[in-house]
Amino acid sequence: MKRLLLALLAFAPVLIFAQGTKSPRPLFDKKSIGEIRLTLPVKNWVSALDSMRIYGMGLMSGSVTVDGAKYDGVGVRFRGDKSYQTGIKRNPFTIKLNSSYPDQNHQGYVSLKLSSSLRDPSMVREVLFHEIAGKYMPSSQAVYTKLYVNDEYIGVYVNLESIDKKFLEMHYGSSGNAFFKAGVDYKPEVPATCKQNIYGSLEYEDNLDCYKGNFDMISTTATGWTEIQELTRILNKEPEKIDKLLDVDRTLWMLALNNVMVNLSSYSGNYSHNYYLYKDNNGRFQPVHWDLNLSFGSFKNIGSGSDLEIKDLQSLDPMLHVDNPYKPLISQLLKDSYYKKVYLAHIRQIVEENFLNASYEKRAQELQGMIVVPYNDDPNKAYPLDDFKRSLRETVGRKSKIPGIIELMSKRTRFLKTHPELTALPSSVSNVEVQGRGKFENQKVNSFRILAKADRFPKRLIVYYRFAATEAYMPIPMNEEASNDLPSGVKSFSVSIDGKSADAVLDYYIVAENAGTVSFLPTAYMNKPYMVKLSDLNK
Q1: What CA–CA distance (Å, rounded) separates 430 from 97?
Q2: Same domain, 80 and 143
Q3: Which of 28, 314, 315, 516 has the most Cβ atoms closer than 10 angstroms to its Cβ?
Q4: What angle do CA 68, 73, 76 make, to 5 degrees?
Q5: Pairing verdict, β 142-149 and 34-39
Q6: At what angle do helices 359-377 and 337-354 cross, to 10 degrees?
Q7: 3-state DSSP assignment of residue 286
Q8: Residue 179 belongs to some domain of the structure
Q9: pTM for the whole thing?
Q10: What's the CA gap between 170 and 86, in Å, rounded?
Q11: Is residue 365 part of a domain?
Q12: Nearest to 352 by CA among 519, 516, 220, 149
C-alpha cells in the first residue's frame, strides 16, 4: 500500500499540470486579443528601425514572444508605404520568425504583419473588410493583438495574415510560381521612356524594366517579368483571351468589394496599388487584397480632381473607371457585357448579404467592444477615446475628415440598392438535379447529367465545373429543353459532363443570364459549390 501511495504521489504533479495546461491560443483567434512582446537590442529602437527602413538595410535581429511562445533570432523592421511615419513608435511592423532559423515558425506561420490602422480612428476598417471579403475570395485573416517592445506597451494593433507561402498553398495549392505585389517601397531607376506614375495599373509596356518600377516581384522565377508583361499585353490588346491568364471572376469580386466598401487606396483609386498577383498552377493570375486600413472612405482620391466629399463617397458610381483607359483591369473587363453583368451581380450580392441587413454595423460594434480597454490604455494612439467611440457614426478630424463607417455605408447602401445598373431582376434557378442510374437499370452512368429550370426569360444557363479543388472551373453551356407545359418565362436546361473515372467527383455551380443581369446557384459557390460523386449516382 505504501509503495502504491508513493507511486501516485510521484505522478500527481504531472497529472495536475496536464489538467491545468491550456491549449495554445490560435494566432488568428477572432474571439480574443493576442499579445506580442518584442525584445530589441537597442534602447533607441525607433531611430534604429527608421534608419534601416529609410536606407533599406534589412532587418534588426531580436526576439519575440507570441502569446507566451518565445522565439529568438527573429528579424524586425518597420513596414508600410503611406502608413509608415518616421520618428514614432506606433508604426506598422514586420516580424520574420525564420530570419535566423529557416524552420522556425509559430503554428506554421513564419511572418507576422502588424498594422497600426493609420487614419482609422475606429480601428475596425481592416478587420471588417477582410472578414467580408473572405466570404467571396481568398483574403487574409485579421485579428487584434497588443504589442510590447522592450516591455513597453506600444498599443493595440491589427495582426494580419501574411500573403506568403503558407497562404498561397492553402488557397491555390502551390507557392513557387510568379508572384507580385503592386506598388514598390524602393523604386529602382527605370528607363526614361517608361510610362510615368502608372503604379500597378497593368498598362502594357514594351520594356520589361518598366514593370520593375511598379511591381515588387516576390518570387524568384526567371520568367516572372515576362509573365506579367504578357498578362498586360493580353489585357490591353486581346482582352477576349484574358480568362486564360487571369481568374476573371475573382478579379471582379475584388473590384466589386473595393467599390462597395469605398476602398480607394487600391486598384480602384488614384495609385492602382495594394494588391498581389499570384500565378497558380493553371496558368492564371490570382488577385489578393492588401493594406485595407484606408477602406470605407478614409482615402478619397479616385485619380482625377481633388479628394471626394462624403456625399460623393456615399454615391460613388459602381461603374467608376469603366471608360478609363488607364485602368484596364476595370475598363477592359467591363467592356464585355457578360463580365459587366457578373461584376454588378457581385456588387448586389455584397450589399444584400452584408449591408442591407446591417450585419456589418453589428460586427463593427462587436469589434470595437473587444478592443476598447486596450485602446484606452494605448499610450501612442492617434485619436482620443472619444473619437474612437464616435468614429463608427460620425466624421472624425477637421482636416482628414474620415467618415464614420455607418455614416458612410447606410446612405451608400440605399444608393446602391436603387442604382439603375443594379435594379434588374435576376433569373431564379430551381429544380437542379443530377440524374443517376434508374432503379432497374443494369448499365452504370458514366457522365453527370445536370438538369435545371430558370425563370424571368433566361438567355442561357452555364455550368462551371471542375474535378478537383486545384483545377480551374471550366464553363459549359446548358442546352435548352423543349417543353410546352412550363409557365411563361420559365425554361428547362440540361447538360452532360463526362466523368474522368468511375469514382469522379464533380464540383459545379450554375450561372443564369437574362437580358439584364446574372444570378448564381448556389450563391456561396466561391467556397461551397455543389458537389456530386459519380459513384453515388450509380447506387
Answers
A1: 51
A2: yes
A3: 314
A4: 85
A5: parallel
A6: 60
A7: strand
A8: no
A9: 0.94
A10: 35
A11: yes
A12: 519
Q: Tell me whether strands 479-481 and 491-498 are parallel, antiparallel or unpaired.
A: antiparallel
Torsion angle (degrees, nearest 10) of CA 383, 384, 387, 392: 70
Which pairs count as long-range contacts for 470-477, CB under 8 Å and 24+ apart, including other chains? 470/172, 470/173, 470/281, 470/282, 471/282, 472/247, 472/280, 472/282, 472/284, 473/249, 473/507, 473/509
Residues 363-418: pLDDT tens digits?
A: 999 999 999 999 999 999 999 999 999 999 999 998 899 999 999 999 999 999 99
Task: Give the domain extent around 113.
Answer: 34-165
Count of positions (residues) in the chain: 539
Residue 290 cell numbers, joined: 492588401
Residues 6+ apart with CB under 8 A from 381: 90, 155, 375, 388
Contact (CB, 8 A) for 342 and 348: no
Is residue 56 located within the same domain as residue 122? Answer: yes
Percent of the chain with pLDDT over 90: 88
Place of cell 483607359: 325
Instruction: Report the DSSP beta bridge partners of residue 253.
Output: none
Q: How large is the C-alpha radius of gyration of the chain? A: 26
Residue 200: closest CA among 191, 208, 211? 211
pLDDT for 14 equals 35
Start-to-end C-alpha separation, the chain: 62
The model's pLDDT over 259-305, given as tens digits with 9 standing for 90+, comes to: 999 999 999 999 999 999 999 999 999 999 999 999 999 999 999 99
With cell 495609385, the residue in question is 271
**175-188: buried (b, 16+ CB within 10 Å) or exposed (e) per residue?**
eebbbbbbbbeeee
**pLDDT given at position 45:** 97
Other CB atoms within 10 A of residue 189 CB: 8
Residue 164 identity (one-letter amino acid): D
For residue 320, which phi and psi values (nearest 5 degrees)?
-55, 130
CA angle, 300 as apex, 354 and 262 as ends, to 5°?
15
Question: Can you tell me whether residue 284 is helix, strand or coil?
Answer: coil
- CATH code of 451's domain: 2.60.40.2440
Does 415 reside within a domain? yes
Domain count, the chain: 3
Judge whether residue 22 has pLDDT over 70. Answer: no
